[in-house]
Predict the 3D structure of the following.
Amino acid sequence: MSDKTNKPHQTGRADALLASAREWIDKGQWDEASRILLAALEANPGHADILRNLARVQLHRHEYLPALRTFDRLIGSGQADAADYTDTGDALTDVGEYAQAVDTYRRSLNLMPDDPRNHHNLSRVLYRLGQTDSAARHLKQCTRLCDQIDPWLSLATILPGCSHATQQDILSARRQFADRLTQIEPASKAIRSKRPKASAKSKLRVAYLSAFFHCANYMKPVWGLINSHNRDAFEIHLFSDSPKGSDWPGYRRHPDDQVHEVDTLDNAALGILIESRGIDILVDLNAYSEPRRLGLFLGHPAPVTLAWFNMYATSGLPGIDYLVGDPWVVRPEEAGFFSETLLTLPVSYLTFAVYHDAPEVATPPCTHTGELTFGSLVTQYKITPAVLDAWAEILRRTHNTRLFLANRTLKSKWNRHYLLEEFQRRGADIGRITLDGPRDHYAYLQYYDQIDIALDAFPYNGGTTTMEALWQGVPVLSHDGDRWASRTTFSLLAQSPVRDFVAVNCREMVERAVAMAGDPATPDRIGKLRRHLRKRLADSLVCDTGALCRHMEALYFKVCSKQ
């Protein structure tokens, strides 16, 4: 029988199979639906509804690459609609292919320009590629098109890292988010601690709340503080949203400390637990990195609530009383941009200790290659267009330099291609740029063996990456900024042996990088600095967590005395 004769029969069979598959889809039976859809596709390989249903079933089965191949067939057939492009973008995002996802979301928006989901999802991938201001514009458009809280949360989260955002913009966005959160989580607003002020003879009960106690490299300042606490004066409680049973590398367990695993509790239940333990001071270590706990601070779950460590802008939340910083990250004249009362330490608020394994400090490559290698291991979303402008200018104006970058996003060859194109558009020689992807933490630290001088990102500086660069003997070239997020490296360098690596502004930072590349004495200087930097760092104030603890404890007594 000829193909022409068989076609109606095959089409009818394909339609029948599709109808059967949809019944299994409605029941959530993805395996059976997949089997039937594959048979239907054999009967009619170009059927658009079979292709789109198969792709979506494959996504439900977490078969991302087969789903993307199926979407490619649908798009190639010319039958894709806006939803198909959106689903393709979502699948690409799930596998970290952000540069490809940008194109598919834009194609969907061309067909449906007022679709809030596309604006939100496009903003997500633009942000992850470092296009923060573009991401913010799409989020603002999304807030005008829908009444969902997600775009408000995303906007409040990313604005501190957006070059064109002001501190007033950040405060306004976070207060607007808090107002909307109140409408959907009103129960938390009613949480109030009724415990009377601690007596002069009792220990102060201080609780720390975090979802990241299991992240050793991230918690350097936190464990430095907690391990140093005076247990004769303080009763320490740790409220953990970390995975249950996970190790907490770096924490020196004390028999008097009380650990509460709270991952399964909602905010109302957590507030009740905090109250039942008679906590005097609740210290939030999460900020916007753990969105589900933001609702806890619509009210006051403890007599004193305080944010430290991970809050590099105002929270905008009515239930956080105080925010702890230092003179380098926040200035007195900026107090009006914060919903909290600012508390200022005389030492870096990120004073840290290293408890995890780290490689030995390596000889800087410039001492034997004749080239000066600048580098950065910051996350890709911190590499904004302004950062690319500065780094590209350094490459353009020097001939004996290289640039080494590595982060999780650069695992994808398409994301790497996107980044190299951005440098090329700025006139940089991409043959002198090396890009690499993620490794396990110890091996990731060994990337610093390939870097002579680390370049800081802005307006969202490195935090953990700055600490780790210094610990590996690599000085970080940074500059003073216009907001807290763009001064965290300044805070770390100010009381370190490399204080002179902080420039006044971005222009001076670029000029200093160019000057170091042209100075024949630089390799010798970097070599000598690197040999002794770890020991000098460990002996400096920026690693004196005992001093940090004494100052924090003094703040705790001070704020409790005001209750």
Observations:
- Residues 3-26 form the longest helix (24 residues).
- The radius of gyration is 27 Å.
- The chain has 22 helices and 13 strands.
- The chain has three domains: 3-154, 188-351+546-561, 366-543.
